[in-house]
Amino acid sequence: MTKQRDILLTEVALRDGSHAIAHQFTVDQVLDVTKALNDANVPYIEVSHGDGLAGSSVQYGLSKTNEMELIEAAASVADKSKIAVLLLPGIGTLNELKEAAGLGAKMARIATHVTEADVSPQHIAYAKELGMETVGFLMMAHMAPVEKLVEQAKLMESYGADTVYVVDSAGYLLPDQVRERVRALKQSIGVNVGFHAHNNLSLAMANTLAAIEEGATRIDGSVRCLGAGAGNTQTEVLVAVLERMGIETGVDLYKMMDLAEDIVAPILQSPQEITKDSLTLGYAGVYSSFALHAKRAAKKFDIDSRDILIELGKRRVVGGQEDMIVDVAAEIAAKKEKVLS
Amino acid sequence: MSKVKVAILGSGNIGTDLMIKLGRSDVLELTAVIGIDPESDGLRRARELGYTAIDSGVDGFLKQPELADIVFDATSAKAHLYNAKVLQEAGKKVIDMTPAAIGPYVCAAVNMDEHLDKDNINLITCGGQATIPMVHAVNRVAPVEYAEIVATISSLSAGPGTRANIDEFTETTSRAIEKVGGAKKGKAIIILNPAEPPILMRDTIYTLVEEGKMDEEAIRKSIQDMTDVVQSYVPGYRLRTEPFFDGNLVTIFVEVEGAGDYLPKYAGNLDIMTAAGVKVAEEFAKNVLAKQTV
After folding, report:
1. Are B170 and A119 in contact (CB under 8 A)?
2. Residue A2 belongs to a domain
């Protein structure tokens, strides 16, 4: 028997975590993690390339395993949990959405930059047509004023989103900023409000609690912080915290702790922590998946990866612009060369 | 030199920018701009510049078909289905600027000559016009297994049509990377960036060449030659930096600054479409005029 849940959690390790391991998930890993999450009664499990359906690319990193195989595997062992997929219009198309739905995905999360919601109506409407639950996912929410966020959330609601998320893709927002954003959405839209954090400034938990206090009922977490940058709100910790606060998630805490330790930790090449790169993401307001790419570019050009990330923040680069990393790195290296010669 | 008469169907941003560019052509004579809203900025400007302004759509134009032999369709994919049919029946050549793609894909710098005899040709997408020349430049000297392009444009330059049908961009561009660019497999990504002041159009082109076929020197030269060709009709088209070589991967960075005719300079993505349209129409016209003199 499941109790009434106050908060519905979406576990994003098998999507956002794809960034942290350079999109190397295997079918076996996805099977093991999904089985355990299903057993722990997590309501939603997101499975996709880190950049959403069709994200496998030179630009973002090629998937080791076709994500459709991963989605199919996850759906095959999830009899309680629902499988969710992420789609960024401009990268993924209706074709991939249809394929994922056919393989058993039950929720479509359609993600756009916080000011660009109007690229999503086709995808939200089609997901509905496919019988999926729909989420509008407004990324890089720190880059627009609250009024703009509200306007864009209303658009997504009008397209048929069942939930609209405030997505702190850079892990940049402070608790008060999360509070005012979630509050504004609660006051202006009729559908569920969700929140997705990144822990780059060690604020994921605080921000998530602020969001919940303001009325967010859909929350993302990544078990063992397996997400881009420093990861997301750590799901098993969140389950414990909410339990102590008397907020029902319906998730089994012991099982979450076990799967975090026994199944997810071994997947990580190194434990997730707030490194200087992920800290810089949060400090500069840069999309969290840029971390590993910036590290590689810094090595190639023999420069400090923080300088790259800070410069990208200054240029107000948005999610998906990974090609700017090499571009900016080359520029910084050329300047350095000039100074030295 | 005699000129070939042309008309523009669609009085929005693209149509109006075309109007300004066509005013400079040596071989094309713009006669009419066709819209559906007499109050539109495009039709108002057309009247000011002394062109025939028709506000009753393609049917209005077909009452005076002698106005033009070549028609640019800068309406929408949906409207083009009808426009293409009636214009073909009237014996007009049509340059399709919409994503409808009834006719063959044409990239002005790559495969124009193959299609000078067609009634209807399609100009792919802005991302296609900007990146396919580079895919082709690599492919003509080192066969490309896979080409992937990322087009980043300013939010202000992406109109409602593009936004509501963004899949059309990714799908059409991907297919044309293969069909016109010559890559065995193509992929396209588009990103909208709302930064202020608006950014110029940027394109990154990744090409994976066949194992053992990498020839850096030949590829560099081919890329440079192709840049010159595109620049001849899009002056603001340039390489942002030298191409990168890494194993069998070649990465090319391009930037497109618009001419600032009707659309602002940042809208290089729209400029490259209208410039390509004019270029293709001029080749059509030269071909027609050459036949007449024979």
Report:
1. no
2. no
Question: B146 contacts in A (CB within 8 Å)?
Answer: 58
On whether the CB atoms of residues B165 and B77 are closer than 8 A, the answer is yes
The C-alpha atoms of residue A326 and residue A324 are separated, in whole angstroms, by 6
pLDDT string in tens for chain A (341-residue length): 456 999 999 999 999 999 999 999 999 999 999 999 999 999 999 999 999 999 999 999 999 999 999 999 999 999 999 999 999 999 999 999 999 999 999 999 999 999 999 999 999 999 999 999 999 999 999 999 999 999 999 999 999 999 999 999 999 999 999 999 999 999 999 999 999 999 999 999 999 999 999 999 999 999 999 999 999 999 999 999 999 999 999 999 999 999 999 999 999 989 999 999 999 999 999 999 999 999 999 999 999 999 999 999 999 999 999 999 999 999 999 998 887 76
Determine contact: A320 vs chain B, CB below 8 A: yes
Domain count, chain A: 2
Q: State yes or no: B161 annotated in a binding site.
A: yes
Residue B79 distance to chain A (closest CA, Å): 19
Assess whether B136 and B254 both reside in one domain: yes
B192 with A118: Cβ contact below 8 A: no
Angle, helices A146-159 vs A121-129, to 10°: value is: 40
Q: Which residues of A touch B206 (CB under 8 A)?
A: 58-59
Nearest CA in chain B to A124: B164
For residues A285 and A306, membership in a common domain is answered with: yes
Question: Is the same domain home to A292 and A235?
Answer: no
CA distances from A1 to A76, A82, A98, B170 (A): 22, 17, 32, 45
Partner-chain contact B150 A113, CB within 8 Å? no
Give the ipTM.
0.95
**Model's pTM, two decimal places?**
0.95
Nearest CA in chain A to B190: A90
CA B30 vs CA B23, B33, B80: distances in Å: 7, 8, 20
Of B148, B191, B204, the CB nearest to A318: B191
- Asked if residue A63 is part of any domain, the answer here is yes
Task: Give the domain range for residue B149.
Answer: 126-265
Minimal C-alpha gap between B226 and chain A (Å):
21
- To the question of whether residue B236 is assigned a binding role by annotation, the answer is no
Structural domain range at position A291: 276-340
Tell me whether residue A3 is in a domain: no
Q: Could you give the residue numbers annotated as active site of A?
A: 19
